[in-house]
């Protein structure tokens, strides 16, 4: 793989991707039946999913295992989006709770041009994986934090950077605080591609990262001896519990959540 990215070295990027994969940790471990039902699955949902989607029970169980793994992976992907900036010039990724609790701080002594032509020298970033993950309370709290930063530093802007935004954008963030609509030209809602562009000076910086990411992950996974390949046994255990009668798997699924319920306890 040719490395044509100027703002981060190949070795730094590989290290960052490997660190992200390592954060998957226990989620890479295989699922047996006990782990599958650790927090008690919802049998009714599985029955609906199996029937409505016309899946086999093996597919339905695989999908549920994927859902359980995926539910825990969002923080790991948040780590990838945030901590990559510690390898990029003029960016700081503060330790948790330090430097005001910002996710990323970008400083440029030559100035950072805002869309209206104004110049600031620092951008304070709150980063989110997806545009719809903040409720009204957390939005208001974050906006007030940004307002306070502007009051204490008149040479900065504050960005809500979204990895998965509705579209590529760098716009004033308009939200509601105490029932009142608020906005400020230096409090902005920015898609991650636009933030990469500001920080690196390269329009397609994020695109270029996305192009090399699959190959990098594949190389690391294939070469590492420490990354587990899951061997999930849930379906096999369920099938064994009903003596290889696939038609009886639905009852085995019910028993995962309802074994002590009226009627089920007599099965």
Structure description:
The chain has 9 helices and 8 strands. It has 267 residues and is an alpha/beta fold. The strands form 2 sheets. It has a 6-stranded mixed β-sheet with strand order 1-2-3-4-8-5, with helices on both faces. A two-stranded antiparallel sheet has the order 6-7. It is elongated and about 70 Å long. The model has no long low-confidence stretch (mean pLDDT 93).
Strands ordered across the widest β-sheet: 1-2-3-4-8-5
Question: Quick one: overall form?
Answer: elongated
The SSE order reads HHHHEEEHEEEEEHHHH
> Approximately how much beta-strand content do the residues carry?
15-25%
Overall pLDDT: 93
Total discrete domains:
2
Name the structural class.
alpha/beta
Low-confidence stretches: none
Number of strands: 8
The number of helices is: 9
Regarding quaternary structure, what we see is single chain
Radius of gyration: 24 Å
Helix content: 40-55%
Spatial separation of the terminal alpha carbons = 58 Å
Largest sheet: 6 strands, mixed
Topology of this protein?
Elements: H1 10-22, H2 33-36, H3 43-52, H4 57-83, E1 91-92, E2 104-113, E3 119-130, H5 136-152, E4 156-164, E5 170-172, E6 175-177, E7 180-182, E8 187-191, H6 192-200, H7 205-223, H8 234-241, H9 249-258
Parallel strand pairs: 3-4, 4-8
Antiparallel strand pairs: 1-2, 2-3, 5-8, 6-7
Summary, kept brief:
The chain is an alpha/beta fold and about 270 residues long.
Keywords:
267 residues; alpha/beta; single chain; 2 domains; six-stranded mixed β-sheet; elongated
